[in-house]
Amino acid sequence: MSEAQVPPVTAVGTPRITAGFDEYGRLDLLAHQEVHGGFAALSSGELIGLADRIELRGRGGAGFPFARKVRAVVDSCRRQELPPVIVVNATEGEPPSWKDKAVLTRGPHLILDGAALAAAALDAEEIVIGVADDGVGQESLAAALAERKMPCPTRIVVVPHRFISGEGGALVRGINGEAHIPPGRKVRSSENGVMGLPTLLSNAETYSQLAIAARLGPWEYNAVGMPEEPGTVMLTVGGSATAPAVVEAPSGTPLMEVLEMCGADIGPGLLVGGYHGKWVTAEQAKTIKISRKGFAKVGGTLGAGMLIPIGSKTCPIGEVAQVVQYLAGESAGQCGPCRIGLPDLARAVTLVALGGNAVKEVRQAAGLVKGRGACSHPDGTGRFALSALEVFKADVEAHANGEGCGKSVKGILPLPYTAEKGARKLALDWSRCDGHGLCSAVAPEIIRLDHNGFPAFPQTPLPPWLEDGARKAVNVCPALALRLTEPTPTR
């Protein structure tokens, strides 16, 4: 993966965060100052007041009020008589999301401005910026830091490009030299974060929005977007879109306007909020205005701004099964719902995709993990799977009838592993297979027997956590009909 893979960036209306991208490509310090101008330092009270007046909320997915985070850190610092640490979460570990990487690679100084504002206001000990080890954004960020002086020592910490590595607690653990996984219990970073100090942790876009607001002031900032959710929103539009892009749009923009400008064929459904989000129907999508409230009206979530139309030419159930398998493998393995429940959910969804009547099993597995995990991963995965059953009901029925939906799995829902990136696939030599059925007994997660007693399995790359089971199935085949394909060499 490289910075060249970041999708094009565009805007609805006048750009703010993405201002100057068209003209300069990437804004170095001089270009950044020319486009955005300067800003005045703020006290902690002024910082809180500004964040309150613009209704600034975290843009990493949870949408927590930024002002409340700052207040909590200020109170903790006073009570413990300790300085704070500012943490910028720019890891963006979810495969469909690119909006933070777009800003990292093209407008890094805006992220640094926001972090510098917070650090100066709170008299911080240090600024730490977490980025993924996928090679996207780190070089641009380092170059930006070399061009300027920050109000306190600032460093970049590289974390594994995994789904769970960007969770707040996992990022703090990684910065502290521990495993890059959620802590398994509720730990408030405002009380005990990096190096045990009170820590203000927020997403890269959040700090960028803060930097914009500090320049414009609350009145001008609030002049764009909805009164209750002012400003712009950064979105990643992918999936079936013929012109995938990172889009900056004012809140309140009709969702269809953004999808149409990206050439998106919604098909039977649209995923909003990412892999912990929710599927909505094409009809629901037509009613949504881009905002937290707009998505909530149809039971969805804005999350980190991912919009993934499935399109009309791909198998939605097969795509969903691949993602649930991936999410099961991304578990930290710290609690039963993740360690046992998510693999059960992945098996059930895969069985539905292969033509089994396993909807009841999917609902049961999702119900057993709900509200019981040490973090939000089980709940988010269950929500993703259950909403797919509702939105793609016709496809589920077609698969259960044994006829299938007639569409193939094309990787519309992106994953970090593919055959081209080194993943293996199962293959069957039909001239050898005698239908013994041993393979399905050894690896029920991925292999079932069809109506004639022969093995059926997805014709898609295997997630790493299923490779051992697949290899065992290959080894027990008495006819030597089953094999694992070798991965395509990467360049």
UniProtKB/TrEMBL annotation:
GO terms, biological process: cellular respiration
Family annotation (SUPFAM superfamilies): 4Fe-4S ferredoxins, Nqo1 FMN-binding domain-like, Nqo1 middle domain-like, Nqo1C-terminal domain-like
Could you cite one Gene Ontology molecular function of this protein? NADH dehydrogenase activity
Give the Pfam families listed for this entry. Complex1_51K (PF01512), Fer4_15 (PF13459), NADH_4Fe-4S (PF10589)
Q: Does the keyword Iron apply?
A: yes
- Which keywords are on file for this protein? 4Fe-4S, Flavoprotein, FMN, Iron, Iron-sulfur, Metal-binding, Ubiquinone
Q: Which cofactor does it need?
A: FMN; [4Fe-4S] cluster
For this protein, the record's Gene3D superfamilies field holds: 3.10.20.600, 3.30.70.20, NADH-ubiquinone oxidoreductase 51kDa subunit (3.40.50.11540), NADH-ubiquinone oxidoreductase 51kDa subunit, iron-sulphur binding domain (1.20.1440.230)
Annotated NADH-ubiquinone oxidoreductase 51kDa subunit iron-sulphur binding domain ranges read 317-362
At the top level, the lineage of the source is Bacteria
**Cited InterPro entries:** ComplexI_51kDa_subunit, Nuo51_FMN-bd, Nuo51_FMN-bd_sf, Nuop51_4Fe4S-bd, Nuop51_4Fe4S-bd_sf
This protein's record includes keyword 4Fe-4S: yes
* Family per record: Belongs to the complex I 51 kDa subunit family.
User: Under which name does UniProt file this protein?
Assistant: NADH:ubiquinone oxidoreductase, NADH-binding subunit (Chain F)
Question: Which species does this protein come from?
Answer: Actinoplanes derwentensis
